[in-house]
Amino acid sequence: MLYLDESAAAPVRREVLEAMWPHLTGYANPSSVHEPGAAASRALEAARAEVARHLNARPAEIIFTSGGTESDNAALKGIALADPRGRHVLISALEHPAVSESAAWLGRLGYEVETVPVDDDGVVTPAALAARLRPDTTLVSIHYANNEVGTIQDIAGLAALCAEQRVPFHTDAVQAAGTLSLDVQALGVSAMSLAGHKLGTPKGTGVLYLRRRTPFEPLIHGGGQQRDLRSGTENVAGAVGMATALQLASQSDVTGLAMRREGFIEAVLARVPGAQLTGHRTRRLAGHASFVLPGRSGESVLLDLERQGIFCSSGSACAAGSSEPSPALSAMGYSPEVAQTAVRFSFGDSVTSEDLDRAAAALPGGGPASQA
Amino acid sequence: MSSAPDPLPGGSYFDHAATTPIKPTAMRVLTEVMPALSNPSSLHGSGRRARLAVDSAREQLARAAGAHSSEVIFTSGGTEADNLAVKGLYWQRRAEDQARRRILLPGIEHHAVLETAEWLEAHEDAELGIIAVDGCGIVDLAALEATLAASADSVALVTVMWANNETGAIQPVAQIGELCARYGVPLHTDAVQAFGSLPAGSAPMSFRDSGAATLAISGHKIGAPVGVGALLVRRDITLTPVLHGGGQERDIRSGTLDVAGICSFAAVAEELVASQAKEAQRLAGLRDQLLDAVVGLEGVTLRGPDPRTHPELRLPNNLHITVDDAEGDSLLFMLDMAGFDTATGSACTAGVPRPSHVLLAMGLSEEQSRGAQRFTLGWTTTERDVAALAAALPAVIAQARSAGMAAARR
Lengths: 372, 410
Hints:
The complex is a heterodimer of chains A (372) and B (410).
Chain A: E1 2-3, H1 14-25, H2 35-55, E2 62-65, H3 68-82, E3 88-92, H4 97-108, E4 112-116, H5 126-132, E5 139-141, H6 155-164, E6 169-172, H7 184-187, E7 191-195, E8 206-210, H8 236-250, H9 254-271, E9 276-277, E10 288-292, H10 298-307, E11 310-311, H11 327-331, H12 336-339, E12 342-346, H13 353-362
Parallel strand pairs in A: 1-11, 3-4, 3-5, 5-6, 6-7
Antiparallel strand pairs in A: 2-8, 7-8, 9-10, 10-12
Helix pairs in contact in A: 1-8, 2-8, 3-4, 9-13
Chain B: H1 24-37, H2 46-65, E1 72-75, H3 78-96, E2 102-106, H4 111-123, E3 127-131, H5 141-151, E4 155-159, H6 173-182, E5 187-190, H7 207-210, E6 214-218, E7 229-233, H8 259-295, E8 300-302, E9 318-323, H9 328-337, H10 357-361, H11 366-369, E10 372-376, H12 383-409
Parallel strand pairs in B: 2-3, 2-4, 4-5, 5-6
Antiparallel strand pairs in B: 1-7, 6-7, 8-9, 9-10
Helix pairs in contact in B: 1-8, 2-8, 3-4, 5-6, 8-12, 9-12
């Protein structure tokens, strides 16, 4: 079988599990003063330093969380509650529910939440942001890359606009981690969310990068762990898994992956009648190719591929089994009829050009695979 | 990367209340679930399989805690569960009626509850009402009833932990639940320490019978991995979420679920409840040996309920003493040097040299609170470990006291 749905569920990396294992079987609370507690604390801080290194951040700017959802909630609510400024929150039209629902919650507290539209490629343009940004905007949150159409945002450019006005800028980098640079200095972000499970850790571990001196009100209160920014006994194994996964990601061949994707996109567009790429043509995630096939039924295409042993998806997890058109494609101007023909292929290092050629051939009208 | 912690403790670990070593059952489940996660051929349909696994874990955990499976909300741990309960109940009750501003709680609550309530007081217009406890740290029911009778309309919630993490004192939760029900006020109980650890002879923990609206439990305190916990939420209770997003967990708690951790947590919970009575008896016996070894020593005072007269009022794995003229930290240090891992109190505040808020709430002076030492036993504790600690304690205590008195003379 050929699994081309890594955006839905990425395999846990064996090296990550091996690194985590001794800490799962270890036993001390890192806040305990005795020697086993101190050992757990050393492992935790080493993982924090390692994560910081991959982000070009300081260890004190790394907060371990239970995952991407918590990181997003903490960033939006934490920054907005700590310094409400003009009670004006800007998010893009393509945010994950963890961001949009957190913003909606701030809306119920009296914040004005405004959505920055995207263009037909799913891009938030600097002009669209500038038109809505106010000197007293509380916070801007724009995701780094989109899971459904693969478009990458110009985070450095958007963050620079915010920096001019001293407006805190958060990015949900959950989908970007693994193939895009997470250098927070180059990106210029105030806060950034990461989830381990998109990088090959088990679920339940994440990171919030929070630039020092960014106003922040903790989301979870208690024993004051992690410098009072996130209470709760630290998940040492999860932190070690996160550090290991970032290390592995830094060694992966992203250029090769992007080249294989290019070949695949060209093959599909050339061979499948009527196929259109969704998202940006070049500024897209390395292992991500998404299409609409106007006139076809997305559902039957997926079933047909599955019969041939190829597993991909419509792209929107929420749309699975529901007839709701994808909110992302709608925001990008696709009609519901066309949006329902969406097919997404997402893949990692282990997928070869031959695999992708086979997938292109398996699409309706794709013709024989070139090597078949 | 730095080296991993040592494997299983060699019998010197007396800090099970901070975290207890992962149990073989938890490891077995992790070994079963985790490799499947790394196999791409098992990834297709993994969402559906993960849901099935979580649902079955939910039922398993619900059975172990006397709850209905729809009442189980999985969280990242006890702290998140407590935050969700206290904030969620407060926001919801306040939204229903602006007059409900008060949070009633005893001063002995865990920091996850206490700091959350204090945050609500500082930022969300809450008012805290402290419920008195007696010298053993048990809630004064008459005082609670008087407060409720006088002003139940202004109460958003009552929160009382099932058992205290420092002294092991067990609260009359069912009676508190009954009182709260009579006045129409929801009760939250932090049962992180009590779950699976109640004394032999006590009825097994039952959320259904507790009268609580919400109840928090944690995985790593019972031998499951860190990073998983649950809040039990009665079906008629609505909570305002702390984590918003995809709407998982009845829309009460969003975020992808740690499937391996959850399965492991539920399996351990089930096993624990099945063996609880026997294990409680074993631990109480060992704890009493330690108690016998120290209680007659000069300057040593047992804190919390006396298990020799009231075994039902104290967790069977807990011994807590204060030593006059000694510093808790020097006791801990000397015990650590001798190979025994103990605590001065809660690990969650360790490293901060201030007297325990639990002991202060029980009426101790700062002076008396200083020499606190907690010994908590668990599933790896053996007769030999206890004998060794019991033999070492008199000398360690004497040494810490003379060091303390020498320091005082200077």
